[in-house]
Amino acid sequence: MSKKAQIKAVRGMNDILPGESALWQTVESVCASVFAQYNYRQIRTPVIESTHLFSRSIGADTDIVSKEMYTFEDRNGDSLTLRPEGTASTVRAGIENGLFYNQQQRLWYVGPMFRHERPQKGRYRQFHQIGVECYGWSSADIEAEVLAMVQQVFQRLGLQRTELQINSLGDSTARSQYRSALVEFLSGNVDQLDDDSKNRLATNPLRILDSKNQSVQALLGDAPSILDYLSDESAAKFADLQAYLTALEIPFTINPRLVRGLDYYNDTVFEWINPEFGAQSTVCGGGRYDGMVEQLGGQATPGFGFGMGLERLIQILQEQNAEIAQQQPHPDVFVVSVGEQARSQAIVLQKSMVNAGVCVQCHMGDGSMKNQFKRADKSGATIAVVLGEDEVAAGAATIKPLRGSPGESGGPAAQQTIAQIDVANVVTNLLESL
Ligand code: ATP
Ligand code: MG
Fold it and tell me: Which residue among 116, 238, 357, 373 is least packed, with the fewest CB closer than 10 Å?
């Protein structure tokens, strides 16, 4: 007998199984409610875009564009790419739909991103980001608002030891002066660079600062600092941001070697880092990208935003906050029913209770009363609604609390048999009192 090969998920792409999806939903709903409180609106863009959207915005020498994109030709021969990040699509959609025309925008998005990286803990080929993008402000107050939102999300989720690092990359003049100084310094120490960094010395030297190679990092301890090259205007904005963060009581450190992996940033960049997670320690990263809208064909519009890696955030939560990580949804009510007639009444009662806002699971198919009660218990339901032969004959149902209730010493409250027409009401009241 030939055994058929089992079809597996694509390497680096994960299923989010039912045991984990509640935590994902919690994280997403905490983000959505914090963003809503700051009056941000969601934007939903396609997962696939024209390839040149990313090569034009992210930068041809970046890791993403040079080696991580999922690019393919469709049936028309057009070159398309699975989006590796969310900012370029948001800018494209904003230009195409006139969102930047005489308007400021506070936007957020959530969804899968795709990068062909080496899969490991906290690094996958399909991963998920929640991100925020703001358009139309060049001052540091919007930056502080965005960082306050991130802190609020972390606080509501009970995330600990996640630290904010900030830096300023200045304007293009500052970066080109700094680039020369950095190249001069690194050229004098070329023997301490790995191959990757040697290549970047010619193409994109600032990216060497982002190297994960330890000996390169050690060398960089003595490298010149970009902060010494900022214009007065950039330096003043960076000082503003620090003052706002202090007023907001958001602790931060200045890391002059923070450059971020994408080429489009200017002035403020930042990362929220959880030091327990090694090379995958950045949970959230972002910055200012005042040139991108114009670069993609729109009228010059300042932009600021971040992307937060949900897999990394969730992993940290699972290790730090067991209470939130292990929360599993359970029904309020489990309906136990014996006999053909009871089955029909069970789903009708389910409908009436759902109508009243209750979460209801019915036993389906045959099964002894004893067996069904075992399942009711296992389901975690607070109340059983029982439709036995006597109840069915009388148009009644027995309400049996399964969990402790106030007024009694821990044990469940007494059961009661009531008319089926009253079940939704009685159950609703009982759930409120428990
Ligand atoms: P890293 O330096 O870890 O590769 P990055 O600079 O490439 O990160 P960004 O492009 O800024 O990351 O994306 C923002 C966030 O998305 C990251 O901070 C991280 O939390 C998450 N992220 C990025 N790439 C991956 C990946 N391959 N798998 C899981 N999460 C990722
Ligand atoms: Mg990366």
Answer: 357
Picking from 76, 14, 31, 94, the residue whose alpha carbon sits closest to that of residue 299 is 94
32: helix, coil or strand?
Answer: helix
Average pLDDT across the chain, whole number: 94
- Give residue 236's pLDDT: 98
CA-nearest residue, atom 7 of ligand 1: 261
Residue 12 Cβ < 6 Å to ligand 1: no
Q: Report the 10 Å Cβ neighbour count for 190.
A: 10
What's the pLDDT tens digit per position in 167-185? Answer: 999 999 999 999 999 999 9
Task: Decide if 109 contacts 43 (C-beta within 8 A).
Answer: yes
Strands 282-288 and 303-309 come out as: antiparallel
Separation of CA 277 and ligand 1 centre (Å): 13
Of the candidates 430, 295, 276, 411, the residue with the CA atom closest to the CA atom of residue 356: 430
How far apart, in whole angstroms, are the C-alpha atoms of residue 233 and residue 434?
A: 60
The rounded Å distance from CA 421 to ligand 2 centre is 59
Pairing verdict, β 163-168 and 252-254: parallel
Residue located nearest, by CA, to atom 26 of ligand 1: 123
Phi, psi of 167 (to 5 degrees): -155, 165
Which residue CA neighbors atom 11 of ligand 1 most closely? 285
The Cα 256–Cα 166 span in angstroms is 8
283 lines ligand 1 (CB under 6 A): yes
Ligand 1 in reach of 127 Cβ (< 6 A): yes
- Percent of the chain past pLDDT 90, that is, above it, reads 82
Q: For residues 350 and 335, is the Cβ–Cβ distance under 8 A?
A: yes
- Helix or strand or coil: residue 417? strand
Find the mean pLDDT for residues 332-360.
97
Look at residue 173 in the predicted model and tell me its pLDDT: 93
Render pLDDT for 20-46 as a digit per residue (tens, 0 to 9).
999 999 999 999 999 999 999 999 999
Q: Identify which of 282, 308, 313 to mutate to test ligand 1's pocket (most ligand atoms within 8 A of the CB).
A: 282
CA of 130 to the centre of ligand 2 (A): 16
Which ligand 1 atom is nearest residue 261's CA?
Answer: 6
Q: What is the pLDDT of residues 134-166, one digit of tens each?
A: 999 999 999 999 999 999 999 999 998 999 999
